[in-house]
C-alpha cells in the first residue's frame, strides 16, 4: 500500500533535521516540494537522490488529484515537504492530506522543526492554550478586523507570522488595539542572526524601530492579550440575532451598520447577518403595528 509522509524540514539550522526525516526522504519514490529549487539544496547537502515535483498553493488542487491517483495506482511512497518547518502549518498540504485520507491511503507524520512551537517555547508566555492565526491580512481595514477578533478571543495567548516589510506596521496596530499586550517577537529562529524582542507592545515597537536590520528575516509574534474583557463581548450563545440587537441598542447602529460590523468582526458571515437582520426587521415592524 502507498503511504504519504508529512516531513518537517529545518526552519534555518540544517542540524535540526532528524535522522528519521533523512531516512524517509532517501527512501521515498517521490518528494512533493513547495519550491523544488529550495528543497534540492537540502537534498544535495545530505546527498539524497530523489525524484521531486512541485506542490504549492498555486497548483495545490490540481496536484492533489494527480498525486492521489499515483498513490492509488502505482503503490509508491511520497514525502510532502515545505520550504521550512512542518507542512500544512500555514503552508500548503492540508488539501492533499485530506484527499489522501478520504481515499483510505495511510498518512504518517514525523516530528520535527516548526517555527510555531519553537517561538512558543522561548517566549516566556503562557502556552497551556493558544490561538494560531498565521499571516494576518495586509489591507488596513481587514487587519484591524482580524486584530479585533484576536482581542475578543478568550484564549489570550496568540501567535502570528509576519514578513519583514510589514512587521513594524503589525506591531503598531497591535499596540493600538492591545496596548497592554505582552509580546515576544522572534526573528530568524535557529539561524545565525536570531533575535528576540520582548516586553509590552510599545516597548517591543521601540526595540524594533532601533533595530538596524528590522526589514530582514522572517518573524513570529507570540503575544498575551492583557486587554481582553469578557463583559465587553457579546455572548456567542445568544446567536446572531442577539449580537445584532446588542449593536442596535448599545451602539445605536442601524440594521445595515450592525450587519456590516458583525461581519467585519468575524462574528458571522455577511449572508447570515443579513438574513437575521431581515427577521429582526420583520419582528420590529410587527411590534410597531401592534402599538398602532
Write up what this structure looks like:
The N and C termini lie far apart (74 Å). The protein has three domains: 3-113, 3-Layer(aba) Sandwich (Cobalt-precorrin-4 Transmethylase, domain 1), CATH 3.40.1010.10; 116-224, Tetrapyrrole methylase, C-terminal domain (Methyltransferase, Cobalt-precorrin-4 Transmethylase, Domain 2), CATH 3.30.950.10; 234-291. With 292 residues, it is of the alpha/beta class. The model is unreliable at 231-237 (pLDDT under 50). The chain has helices at residues 19-27, 36-45, 60-74, 94-102, 115-122, 140-152, 167-177, 201-209, 239-250, 255-264, 270-291; strands spanning 3-6, 30-33, 52-54, 77-81, 106-109, 131-135, 157-162, 182-187, 195-200, 219-224. 44% of the residues lie in helices and 17% in strands. The strands form two sheets. The protein has a five-stranded parallel β-sheet with strand order 3-2-4-1-5, with helices on both faces. The longest helix is centred in the C-terminal third of the chain and has 22 residues, at 270-291.
Question: Radius of gyration in whole Å, from Cα?
Answer: 24 Å
CA distance, first residue to last residue: 74 Å
Task: Give the low-pLDDT segments.
Answer: 231-237
Looking across the biggest beta sheet, what order are the strands in? Answer: 3-2-4-1-5
**For the residues shown, what is the average pLDDT?**
90
CATH architecture of the largest domain: 3-Layer(aba) Sandwich
Question: Which sheet architecture does the biggest sheet show?
Answer: 5 strands, parallel
Quote the CATH topology of the largest domain. Answer: Cobalt-precorrin-4 Transmethylase, domain 1
What is the CATH H-level superfamily of the largest domain? Tetrapyrrole methylase, N-terminal domain
Amino acid at each position: 500500500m502507498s503511504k504519504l509522509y508529512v516531513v518537517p524540514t529545518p526552519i534555518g539550522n540544517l542540524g535540526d533535521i532528524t535522522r528519521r526525516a533523512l531516512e524517509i526522504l532517501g527512501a521515498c519514490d517521490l518528494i512533493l516540494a513547495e519550491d523544488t529549487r529550495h528543497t534540492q539544496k537540502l537534498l544535495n547537502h545530505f546527498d539524497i537522490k530523489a525524484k521531486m515535483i512541485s506542490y504549492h498553493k498555486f497548483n495545490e488542487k490540481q496536484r492533489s488529484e494527480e498525486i492521489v491517483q499515483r498513490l492509488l495506482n502505482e503503490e509508491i511512497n511520497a514525502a510532502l515537504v515545505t520550504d521550512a518547518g512542518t507542512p500544512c502549518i500555514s503552508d500548503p498540504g492540508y488539501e492533499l492530506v485530506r484527499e489522501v485520507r478520504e481515499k483510505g491511503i495511510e498518512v504518517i507524520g514525523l516530528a520535527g522543526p516548526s517555527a510555531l512551537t519553537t517561538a512558543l517555547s522561548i517566549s516566556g508566555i503562557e502556552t497551556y492554550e493558544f490561538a494560531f492565526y498565521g499571516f494576518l491580512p495586509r489591507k488596513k481595514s481587514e487587519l484591524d478586523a482580524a486584530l479585533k477578533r484576536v482581542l475578543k478571543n478568550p484564549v489570550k495567548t496568540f501567535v502570528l507570522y509576519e514578513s519583514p516589510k510589514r512587521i513594524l506596521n503589525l506591531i503598531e496596530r497591535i499596540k493600538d488595539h492591545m496596548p497592554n499586550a505582552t509580546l515576544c517577537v522572534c526573528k530568524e529562529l535557529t539561524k545565525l542572526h536570531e533575535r528576540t524582542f520582548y516586553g509590552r507592545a510599545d516597548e517591543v515597537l521601540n526595540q524594533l524601530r532601533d533595530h538596524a536590520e528590522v526589514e530582514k528575516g522572517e518573524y513570529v509574534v507570540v503575544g498575551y492579550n492583557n486587554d481582553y474583557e469578557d463583559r465587553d463581548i457579546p455572548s456567542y450563545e445568544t446567536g446572531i440575532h442577539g449580537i445584532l440587537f446588542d449593536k442596535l441598542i448599545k451602539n445605536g447602529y442601524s440594521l445595515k451598520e450592525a450587519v456590516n460590523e458583525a461581519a467585519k468582526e468575524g462574528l458571522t458571515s455577511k449572508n447570515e447577518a443579513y438574513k437575521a437582520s431581515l427577521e429582526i426587521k420583520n419582528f420590529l415592524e410587527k411590534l410597531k403595528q401592534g402599538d398602532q
